Prior knowledge:
Blueprint: H1 30-35, H2 41-61
Amino acid sequence: MRAWDIPSPCVGICRLDADSGLCQGCHRTIAEISAWPRLDAPARLALLDEIARRQRAEAERQPAGGAC
């Protein structure tokens, strides 16, 4: 697999969370966002795994039933 075959996790909701430093849309840091074009395929896949972990952790912190 080539790096450019792996699409960016950007979803077009580009807002940084002040507390976590993560984009609220793609769950990446500024450094991760800016590094994406230079990452090889294994690094991109590793970052996608980390993003999935962050999303699961966030979902576990959410109150039952969704929004407050």
